[in-house]
Write a structure and sequence with these properties.
The structure holds 3 protein chains of 3 kinds.
Chain A: H1 2-29, H2 46-53, H3 55-88, H4 92-107, H5 110-124, H6 130-155, H7 158-166, H8 171-200, H9 203-208, H10 216-223, H11 230-258
Chain B: H1 4-32, H2 43-48, H3 51-83, H4 88-96, H5 103-114, H6 119-126, H7 138-163, H8 166-174, H9 179-207, H10 212-215, H11 224-233, H12 238-259
Helix pairs in contact in B: 1-12, 3-7, 3-9, 7-9, 8-9, 9-12, 11-12
Chain C: H1 2-29, E1 36-42, H2 48-58, E2 61-67, H3 70-79, E3 86-87, H4 91-99, E4 133-145, E5 170-173, H5 176-186, H6 196-209, E6 213-217, H7 221-226, E7 232-236, H8 237-246, E8 251-253, E9 261-267, H9 275-286, H10 288-298, H11 305-308, H12 313-316, H13 325-328, H14 338-355
Parallel strand pairs in C: 1-2, 1-3, 5-6, 5-7
Antiparallel strand pairs in C: 4-7, 4-8, 4-9
Helix pairs in contact in C: 5-6, 5-14, 6-14
The chains are: A mainly alpha, B mainly alpha, C alpha/beta.
Amino acid sequence: MRKMERLSSIYLVGVFIVLYAPIFYLVYYSFNSAGTMYSFEGFTFDWYREVFCDTRLFIILLNTIVIALLSSAISTVIGVLGALAITRVKTKRFRNALLTLNNVMIVSPDVIIGASFLVLFTMIGINLGFGSVLISHIAFSVPIVVLMVLPNLEEMSPTLIDAAQDLGASRWDVLTRVVIPYISPGIFAGFFMALTYSLDDFAVTFFVTGGGFSTLSVEIYSLARRGISLTINALSTLIFLVTLLLVLGYYIISKQGAKPGKAGVRE
Amino acid sequence: MQGRTRNIYLIPYMLWIVLFVVAPIALIMYYSMFNIDGAWSLENYRRFFTPVYLSMTLRSFWYAILITGFALLIAYPTAYLLTKTEHKQLWLMLIILPSWINLLLKVYAFIGILGFYGPINSFLRIIGIGSRQILFTGFSFIFVAVYIFIPYMILPVFNALEELNPSLVDAARDLGASPWATFRRVIFPLTVSGVKAGCRAVFIPALSLFMITRLIAGNRVITLGTAIEQHFLVTQDWGMGSTIAVFLIIAMGLTMIMTENGKLVK
Amino acid sequence: MKKVMQMFITVVIAALGLMYLTFVLNSQQGYSGGNTLTVYNWGDYIDPELITKFQQETGIKIIYQTFDSNEAMLTKIAQGGTSFDVAIPSDYAISKMKEQGLLIPLDHCKIPNLKYIDPRFLDLPFDENNEYSAPYFWGTLGIIYNPEILEGMEFTSWNDLWDERLRNEILLYDSAREVIGMGLNSLHYSLNDTDIDHLMEAKRKLDALSPNIKAIVGDEVKMLLANEEAAIGVVWSGDASEIIGANDKLDYVIPDEGTNIWFDNIVIPAGAKNVEGAHLFINFMLDPENAAQNTEYVGYSTPNMKALEYLPEEITGDVRFYPGSDITDKFELYENLGKKMTAYYNELFLEFKMHRK
């Protein structure tokens, strides 16, 4: 048993090493005075200094975060409603049709989504900029939320709801007190996946943006022709550290709030 | 629970479907009917059935299957072991965290890592195997693709494992089932919905992967996604690009139907 | 439910707070409203100090937006929905835009600095009399190689690439015109050849090259060559000068058979809101001193004759990047071959890529 435990920690450590390898690579070279992601010459903070001087880059970063947070929050709401709707559809054919339509968005390459949204927005007459980017990010994040929430809903036994209803719970109560708490792991998973989609998206944003509005991905991709500067590495390092701290902080606070005194039993 | 409530939930979702799914599909279908001269024809569909595009389709499927398979193979044990750890929610967050760093940057880092002078080849030289061409091979392509998709697989599997009633596992053990039998007969069947969600979240986008086909595989691997990308952005032959997209959507519908075994029916 | 709601509210509040911060920063920068000029350019393709200088001189705020390919930019401008006052597309993209009526003619009276441009680079087929565009940077397509790895090998002709010693060493651009064009050039055909037999011959010749090809890549070619990941590549001169800047072991040659000459020109796209400001901007960028400063920053070849006087001899005397007119006369521009022929080129290129194992 002891041996199994050691093996399993080795496996997990291995997975984490691979997952973080490219990030550490980026971080390492963000201190390179040579200015490239190759052959480390000397240690420097220059790239970090540049990040803090560049207001334009800072605005772009803020845009990216705002779009990511808002779009994932809104798409989580729509996606959860969608998943509820799908499980409630009785006819199998209609349900399959809905699911297929749901997945079309995931299978479609970004360029197609971006180009067709661009056509759509110009047809409707929506001005390109913050609004159009937000709408598109919500649009392409909804299906992944649905996919993440559905398994939870499928597993939920109907007797749970019946019991609640028998006890006189209203529909709203059933939803907020029974269903949502039960599917909350799926909701969180969906939210974080939506966040990931939004932060990483380049092609769709590129097509639907305008009026000087830009996100970090668009900026980074457009830099590729001339070579990405290590300033971007430095910025990514900072983003990485801040998110890491946020995650840790959030976790500690929520743990302490939930069960005081129980944190840190082992390690 | 059925009856009128359904309509309320369906409204925002249906609105989304009509605006952002049905409308774009209609547009794609419409575009796919036009040839390069802008005339109405089925020429694009005929072109799709030429050896070039057919072999591309087969290869895309083959690679997508490999990517999904390896992702599952690595993600399932990871998710399983994560559920056994002390701070599992935290570890799960840390699994997702790397995917918030820009993909292009990470891919550039991978070019450095897998490259001839990168750390992996240096390691191989030190242990005496000698340098190998890793970058621009099918292997590096699958490796990086699995890297990108792994969180999408771990998350649903982890959720399914979390919901698994531990007393069922204990019961199986008490009845004398071996760990393997417990896994095969109890754990896996009960988490299959999570596995399916994960496979869908990986297989479908893997079919239309692009960018890393060029950056990591040096165009040795050409997927349907790459072809669509090229037709939309380089050739500006939106007709042919749309036609491939139509087939991609059909393929996705088929995979959906095949992985569907009435699990949704209560 | 409580946890979910808590999180939802935190996220929305955080987002709104950050939005307000963005708004404040934007208005501090003067981006909201007023006298602005939207510039649509490749990323990092202008000296940021020149933007500041322009803003100070004219009081016009520049909104800088970027694209990563000519085609993506074309789609964006063609669809409308957002307006750009100035854009910097490449030659073939300009002729496409002209065809689709996406350009506003330049008023030459407002761009007196056009007189500083080398006459070789004016009045070209993609834009006769420079009715719509003013040259920004120009360059060629050639071979860059690492003499240290390829000991003793010399490159003077495209055909040198077919050498058996170059197994798995060559990097090519993922671009049909460049690769097929190289095949055509090596057979002494025109880059704009539309004869099917010639094209098939070029394709067969390229198929014979495939064992030598390491990868077909994009902008990352610079990183790969500078890091000696590959020994040889077929690249644009702009990229070549950057690679050599990063790793001076490499050398760039223009093959004897001739090659492509390309331009990135400044245009005013249809739908521009500040046409007056756009002219000011173009004239500003063509000012010899500004052009020289921009050239030092970007590293590409400037078409501005007068600007050369402000640049060091080591830049302007380098015949690899500033070849004389006797050499440039042999070069060919990519002509717009029409949709059908472009599609055929791309189909051949796709087959070539698929054929490779």
